[in-house]
Amino acid sequence: MGARKDIEAITERIRERSKPSRDIYLERIEGAAGKTVHRSVLSCGNLAHGFAACAPGEKEALSGDRVPNLGIVTAYNDMLSAHQPFETYPQLIKQAAHEAGGIAQVAGGVPAMCDGVTQGQPGMELSLFSRDVIAMAAAIGLSHNMFDAAVFLGVCDKIVPGLLIAALSFGHLPAVFIPAGPMTSGLPNDEKAKVRQLFAEGKVGRAELLEAESKSYHGPGTCTFYGTANSNQMLMEIMGLHTPGASFVNPGTKLRDALTKEATKRALAITALGNAFTPVGRMIDERSIVNGVVGLHATGGSTNHTIHLIAMAAAAGIRLTWQDISDLSDATPLLARVYPNGLADVNHFQAAGGMGFLIRELLDAGLLHEDVQTVWGEGLRPYAVEAKLAKDGGVSREPAPAASGDEEVLAPFAKAFQPSGGLKVLSGNLGHAIIKTSAVKPERRVIEAPAVVLDSQQALNDAFKAGELDRDFVAVVRFQGPRANGMPELHRLTTILGVLQDRGHKVALVTDGRMSGASGKVPAAIHVTPEALENGPIGKIRTGDIVRLDAEKGTLEVLVSEAELQERKVLLIDLSENEYGCGRELFAVFRQVAGRADQGASAFGN
């Protein structure tokens, strides 16, 4: 009962804090909904442009407001495995819409970049800001005012948060998110990680490394580890934006196609032209956001969502904070172990019972708000199911399995892996930071060691190769925040620090950059706020200072006197090389206006 009361209390304080901004938001979307769709307010010239490419029958239908028109916003490209399956979705959606007596048009496309491709490359410095670009691109597509509802095709890291920000900006319209699903299992993630470490140590060559990576990332669909992409899919389902059971069905299967057609028909059923009008801006409220955070903790999800959830909530006028996220972690047990928090991949999670089992366990324990609205209707309980292919080619559902198929991967509530979710806020004289502890062994959660101050991933790599890091230390990598260089993910650090930790050294990372869902076995205080470029104390640390990271108590400190820390100046570095190349010059305005990590790192303000 204690955890249930905690979650109710946290939800209530979010509601009270958000009331002024939420009221303004709801008033705005009510006003937009009252203007109707909206084709009736378009001039004849406007409307003719909007349906010029349609078939004659569709033009006649769209000339009034009798037939629902569904806008498709797609993140399709065929370079990225997670988004390649979306190539065929528009035609499938149009077919399903026609069967349901509606029409569907591709409203627009949005960019989709992969942090796995850009990792350690200049392009990574565009990654975080791509979320806001995606939101703006989706808004442009929907701005034609031609649509009664929208479906959003996106999977990976910044794409889904950007799409949801856009959907909430058009909160007077219903919105359904349609996933593509994970690729089938390839080389186990732990074996891939071993090859990466051997490569870092010079024990295998690039050919062996590429072979291992290619066997792991081998086909269409989302990467199978539990990073931000799969955390996105979990969030969309537990927040009621997917149809039940849709998240983790593999691409190219009959069930995947059936779920896509069903989602289309559901989107058409919940427009203002029917009897089940479900505008997304009213549907997503404080309870939905809390359910998403609880799901993130219960599954050991991506640290990126300590940024994205704040930005997504803000788009609906909801004021979520890091402290809310941390307190919800304390109230939520860890029920899933998926790599990097375990050896299994997301397909094993699905086979063990998946989202239906997880939602049922959390609902029965009183840790989710059951009385929410979803795209499927009233209440979250209908999501405690398993989706299957029906004999007629449609979707059938049955209750989630009573027992987990593998308790090493997906535990029942009574056998939780740990009592808290594993995401925690650290505070101290270095400001605030986030740490993910679900994959960090308890004996490694408190580190006190001399700092080695570095200004880039490459600097740490060079020091490692020179043999300068075979000792206990805390790597302090600064000038990696939103305003310095776009806050890139720093995965190249993971392998090196993992090697040193395996050699018996006590190591940790402190950075104002990101580490994403792949934050693993090395204790990492990330998203340090304020960042170095904003005169943050992280920029005042000197090599040799003793840094103490205590994930148990939730503290992050440099052990120098307050007076000395105040007297020190941040030693600024030359960031000019981060300002151009790979399109970075086009993003200067984003770097200038980006909010702090604990405020969503958004260019839109809060």
TrEMBL record:
Boundaries of every Dihydroxy-acid/6-phosphogluconate dehydratase N-terminal domain copy:
68-380
Q: Which GO terms describe its biological process?
A: D-gluconate metabolic process; Entner-Doudoroff pathway through 6-phosphogluconate
Keywords on this record? 4Fe-4S, Carbohydrate metabolism, Gluconate utilization, Iron, Iron-sulfur, Lyase, Metal-binding
Reaction catalysed?
Answer: 6-phospho-D-gluconate = 2-dehydro-3-deoxy-6-phospho-D-gluconate + H2O
Cite the InterPro entries for this sequence: 6-phosphgluc_deHydtase, Dihydro-acid_dehy_C, DiOHA_6PGluconate_deHydtase_CS, ILV_EDD_C, ILV_EDD_N, IlvD/EDD_N
Q: Does the keyword Ion transport apply?
A: no
| E.C. no | 4.2.1.12
Pfam families given for it?
ILV_EDD_C, ILVD_EDD_N
What Gene Ontology molecular-function terms does this entry list?
4 iron, 4 sulfur cluster binding; metal ion binding; phosphogluconate dehydratase activity
* The name this protein goes by in its record: Phosphogluconate dehydratase
Species of origin: Borborobacter arsenicus
